[in-house]
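Next comes the chain:
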Amino acid sequence: MQLSKWFEVATFATLILLLVVDLILVARDARVPTMRECTAWVGFYVSLALVFAVILLVVGGTEPAGQFVAGWLTEYSLSVDNLFVFVVIMSKFSVPRHHQQEVLMVGIILSLVLRGGFILIGAAAIERFSWVFYLFGAFLIYTAIQLARQGETEESDFEENILIRKARRILPIAPTYEGRKLIIRYGGTRALTPMVLVFLAIATTDLLFALDSIPAIFGLTQDPFIVYTATIFALMGLRQLYFLLGGLLDRLIYLSIGLAIVLGFIGVKLVLEALHLNDVGWINGGQPISWAPEIPIWVSLSVIVVVLAITTVASLWRSESRKGNQSGA
């Protein structure tokens, strides 16, 4: 069932309003939120996503609702994995804890802008060229193999990219932070605070994250509205989740393996869909391959839920087992 344009406009207007309110709250109160506050906000945003799924079920039927939930879960899981890198960036640049909320909010806004651009490009490419499914599928399978090789998720050292290294050499960077300021007087001249480098690191990292996440969600649905709403709902509450998880991030040791399985599955699904729609001349004479199976959304959703559940339980069990062995030793 085709969703009403008014419904889509009303949805985006509501989501933008929520993001603006969140931004105002961060600007007015930059303190570190309590665990209770973080739990309440994360619960609110998760509940909001589930309520939206029910609304989609009523308005559009089971197909868009299932696609949204599958896309949201995938994006949410990738976002949790991305928090590991954010932790490393905050530590690398010694960002004061009471300013980390602002950094995370800037990161979330950059993510929404970058993903919005990639979604528009991806949707246009898919509409015109069915072979893009092959490209997306191969990229996700490659990414899955790379994640699987990493094994347990570890907080590896953050490597500054060439853009940050050049910024350090060219721009006048002061050695210390001064509140929220980006430009200060230092040594008798104007200089940038390290916060500029932090924003640069977050922005370039977000760009890499978008390259992974957008093909993954397009493997579950090609509807740009569902793709972007699932992405927005996954990013909302990420700031509070960062503070809520804290040390728990170190306990999700099998998260990379779980994500590798999910991304590999979606990559295979994309390749099968490409074969089913095939118009590439050197594959089967440019004719669709009828025997290529189509994986329904309920199967995709089931695989994602089961894999992430097993990954989480196994990670927590292994962490507790390690803790018990260390205390026994």
About this structure: The mean pLDDT is 82. The radius of gyration is 21 Å. The longest strand covers residues 183-186. The first helix runs from residue 5 to 28.
